[in-house]
Design goal:
Layout lengths: L2 H8 L8 H21 L7 H24 L21 H19 L15 H4 L2 H8 L5 H23 L4 H28 L23 H8 L2 H26 L2 H4 L4 H8 L12 H31 L3 E2 L2 E2 H24 L1 H4 L3 H5 L2 H12 L3 E5 L9 H4 L7 H7 L13 H5 L5 E5 L9 H5 L5 H7 L1
Antiparallel strand pairs: 1-2, 3-4
Helix pairs in contact: 2-3, 3-7, 4-14, 7-8, 7-12, 8-12, 9-10, 13-14, 13-17
GO molecular function, one term: metal ion binding
Keywords: 4Fe-4S, Electron transport, Iron, Iron-sulfur, Membrane, Metal-binding, Transmembrane, Transmembrane helix, Transport
GO cellular component, one term: plasma membrane
């Protein structure tokens, strides 16, 4: 092998950035740089103007870079060389990004004063003060760390969602799904809750729950939350009734007809960030059987944990007691769950570890709502991914880019339906298949479970097969 061939292996078809890509990249870097310098109290004045300049640079820069990167290519999924890039193959840039994201989440959750949040009545400084003008516009009060987080979260989904759409522009399902994801985050999770909080300054807490439901919203039945909804007038009672209706009635019904994808891939903010900002890292999700076993044990254990926590919390609310079986409800139930699952797992690990573990760590291993809907999808749903084994060429694209760690190719080679509790129906496996082997469908329950699932021990009851005959 000559030196040119050797170079091609280590740097496969490396294409230099054109002028527009460089422009978009530098716009994004400058926008992020303004916020980064603000974190260390180096502000550009006036702050109210430069925060908008920063947001505009990040948004426009991402769009320019994304469009120029894909619009000049033939339509189709381009995941070329992801295993060679240092950012998407756990290289130096990947680890650096993971460390920055993890540090940011730790500061947001537990040390917001280092981001500039004013403590004990003090004025905001640093990064947080940059968003005071936007918060005052919506709510008439200075920004909190959560307002800053929500704004940046929404900006990431919006800007990188548009980039995602350029990349997947050949696939109608992905285009529609991404538009819905962006609208859900922008309006349901950000604008509407912030506006409602500004209009209901005395009882704002339930306004944040417009898109979440128990068990994902683990504090739904805590006393302070129930009190605010009960005392929140008509709007508060509306949210209480709707919240209970959503997980008891609506969720099981809609999951039966279309699977858990209606929420996990179309509405959920965690899923929205994973599908947009996390797209470059989806192939890092482990496909090992050991990971699948860990997934089932972990997510169902967390479901049991939140169920026990909820019983304890409701017991304390209706009895007026702070103890459950002699144990402090806050010390032994609510606080541990909020810290370990609500913050550490879903935030720090769930997003901070994108560049190391893939984009759906939280959704796959921890989210109790995903686990709840997964049980319904697995055993009582019309949703499945059908396969045409005769057309499969075993290229492995489907398995590689499944962010939930499902070995899709193994099912496709046998021509079997893919019916897994963890599948979020993102449709990327179908989009990257060069032969059209995979298809997302909602069909009759009969025949959706594969006979070999029993032999493989894939959590299928023998009665399922008997009932299908």
């Amino acid at each position: 092998m000559d030196k040119h061939s050797s170079f091609a292996v280590s740097n496969p078809h490396k294409v230099p950035l054109d002028s527009l890509q460089k422009l978009g990249l530098w716009m994004g870097i400058i926008g992020v740089g303004i916020l980064a310098f603000a974190t260390f109290n180096f502000h550009s004045e006036p702050k109210s103007v430069f925060v908008l300049v920063s947001i505009a640079l990040i948004l426009v820069g991402s769009i320019v870079y994304g469009r120029q990167s894909y619009i000049k290519q033939v339509p189709g999924i381009k995941n070329n060389h992801v295993w060679f890039k240092t950012l998407s193959n756990r290289g130096v840039w990947g680890w650096l990004l993971g460390i920055i994201l993890t540090l940011f989440y730790i500061l947001i959750y537990w040390f917001p004063q280092y981001l500039g949040l004013g403590m004990n009545g003090e004025e905001n400084t640093g990064l947080v003060v940059m968003f005071d003008s936007i918060s005052m516009f919506f709510k008439g009060q200075p920004a909190s760390q959560w307002f800053v987080y929500g704004t940046l979260y929404t900006l990431a989904i919006l800007s990188l969602g548009i980039k995602f759409m350029y990349k997947y522009r050949h696939n109608r399902y992905q285009l529609i799904r991404t538009v819905v994801v962006i609208i859900s985050q922008l309006f349901l999770a950000y604008l509407i809750p912030e506006i409602l909080e500004g209009l209901n300054t005395e009882t704002p807490y339930f306004a944040k729950d417009i898109k979440n439901m128990w068990p994902l919203n683990y504090y739904f039945f805590e006393s302070w939350h129930l009190d605010n909804m009960v005392n929140g007038g008509t709007l508060g009672m509306f949210y209480l009734v709707v919240g209970i209706f959503m997980f008891l009635v609506f969720t099981p019904i809609i999951t039966y007809f279309v699977g858990k994808r209606w929420y996990c891939s179309w509405v959920c903010g965690c899923g929205g960030l994973a599908e947009t900002a996390g797209d470059p890292f989806r192939h890092l999700s482990s496909k090992k059987l050991s990971a699948w076993k860990l997934e089932r044990w972990l997510i169902h254990s967390i479901m049991v944990f939140i169920f026990i926590v909820t019983i304890a919390v409701l017991y304390g609310y209706f009895t007026g007691s702070g103890e459950f079986f002699g144990l402090s409800i806050y010390t032994y139930f609510s606080k541990p769950y909020g810290f370990l699952i609500g913050a550490m797992f879903s935030g720090v690990i769930g997003v901070g570890f994108y560049p190391m573990l893939g984009s759906r760590v939280w959704c796959r291993f921890g989210c109790p709502l995903a686990g709840y809907m997964g049980i319904i999808q697995r055993f009582k749903s019309r949703f499945r991914i059908t396969t045409n084994g005769g057309q499969c060429i075993s290229c492995g694209n489907c398995s590689t880019y499944c962010e939930q760690g499902i070995d899709v190719r193994a099912y496709a080679q046998k021509g079997e339906n893919i019916v897994r509790a963890s599948c979020v129906g993102c449709g990327i496996c179908s989009a990257v298949c060069p032969r059209g082997v995979l298809k997302l469908e909602n069909g009759p329950e009969k025949g959706r479970i594969n006979p070999t699932d029993v032999l493989l021990g894939n959590d299928v009851d023998l009665m399922d097969l008997v009932n299908q005959k």
